[in-house]
Design a protein that fits this description.
Length: 109
Amino acid sequence: MSIRLTSLAIALAVATGCGAQAAPHSGPPAPVSDPAGVLHLKPGHYAFRLAGDVRVGEPIRCFTRSGKQAGGGAVQPRGRGVGSSTGFEAMTSTDGRVRITCPANPGNA
């Protein structure tokens, strides 16, 4: 009896693991910083903490999935933001949350 329960538990664990891998990836991919400290982002919405994840003045470059540049700017001081006609936006709230939007289909890029 215990062999059956063990086999069932193993089969369930394997099925659960396979299902998790097959599930679609949610959210934007992880950001990548190049050696010069420029944050390279793919299309999506990102949230960072000022001083913990990013710093004021850190350059941001957005790229489409095909690798074309899709706008960019820099992390702004608390309470400030920046945007462009491509759809790029970087806003820093007064509490230090940095929200960045990189466009999937940039308007003028």
